[in-house]
Amino acid sequence: MIERNTLPSVIQGLSRQAAVVLLGPRQVGKTTLALEVAETQPSVYLDLESPSDRKKLSDPELYLESHQDKLVILDEIHRFPELFGILRGLIDRGRRQGHKTGRFLLLGSASMELLRQSGESLAGRVSYLELPPLNLLEIQPQGAHEEALWVRGGFPESYLAADEETSFSWRADFLRTYLERDIPQFGSRILAETLRRFWTMLAHAQGGLFNASKLAGGLGVKGQTVARYADLLVDLLLVRRLMPYQVNTHKRLVKSPKLYIRDSGLVHTLLGIRDRETLLGHPVVGPSWEGFVIESLLNLWSGPEPPGFYRTSAGAEIDLVLPVSREDRWAIEIKRGLSPGIDKGFHQARADIRPTNSFVVYSGTERFPLAAGVEVIGLREMAEIIAGHSQRP
């Protein structure tokens, strides 16, 4: 059992709101986390994919009212969207009776439809939390464990597998199930093979600028169709869309977002990379490491504005810009290897956006200055800094 950093946030959310929605891909550990929450208080758990549990909700208002003194956990809530309106009525009635917080914990594989339904019905009554795959700060702080997290990805069953082949096989099955069963449940009519080809193209171009027309040409579809495919994978929290960081520099800025497959293990599986040795000799090794670092940091970060990357048409570039407060922004460059360097484009970008702190995140652990105002730092230490900063009131 790995203790998830999201657990305190769920408990805190339930202490503030009547309902908490916990979103994340399948197999990421939402049910395990919910059952841990259930151990802290009287609770009832329903899996809405189970026919027997769905039968209990033949009269949902009557059933849920009978458990108003307990936390009700509803798993796979997107399977029963008509519940949202009923939950709203129960929450409002409970508030009048003094039951203001901690009524419902709703688990779902994220989708825009789920967010829309809950947003319309439960506005002002719900907190949203995301459970991503395992993060660097949730595993043992040894280099071998951290490298395994990069190679295998953060889905618990993949990371904890007995060996590399078992981990790879689990991820291959995960992808197949998602494409053939899970994604169609959200109303998608995209052929599984077409979506797999698109997903694989994204893996080859990990961290690249999104070029819809180029991808569309490879798939034989229209650009807006490719954009719809990308939206779907972003909505399901399987792909991250990193937007250009907007700042008044009077420079010509790149306008296209970057796309990253969020779990590095899925990147490697889509490309047929079974182990560390194969990865180190593959062209994707640098982009894979970059995506792993970005995901590790952004899963721990919260700030007043969205993060982004900075790039001008003249070649000035910063991999990740974090606006940590209204006054401060951090520039983060990502380099794999133990002897990182920075090029002219990074210095030009720093001069453009004037960050308060600049870091080069690399594969080592020692922290040292590299240039005036620029520090080299290991990924774990950078993650600890961001996590500590995000926890400040």
Outline:
The chain is α/β, with parallel strands linked by helices.
Detailed description of the structure:
α10 crosses α13. β8 and β9 form a beta hairpin. This protein has 17 helices and 13 strands. The protein has 2 domains: 124 residues, P-loop containing nucleotide triphosphate hydrolases (Rossmann fold, 3-Layer(aba) Sandwich), CATH 3.40.50; 255 residues, Orthogonal Bundle (Arc Repressor Mutant, subunit A). The chain is of the alpha/beta class and 393 residues long. The chain has a 6-stranded mixed beta sheet with strand order 8-9-10-11-13-12.
SSE blueprint and pairings:
Blueprint: H1 7-16, E1 19-23, H2 30-38, E2 43-47, H3 51-56, H4 60-65, E3 71-75, H5 83-96, E4 104-108, H6 112-121, E5 126-130, H7 143-152, H8 156-159, H9 164-185, H10 192-204, H11 212-219, H12 223-235, E6 239-242, E7 258-261, H13 264-270, H14 276-280, H15 285-298, E8 308-311, E9 317-322, E10 330-334, H16 344-353, E11 357-362, E12 368-371, E13 374-378, H17 379-390
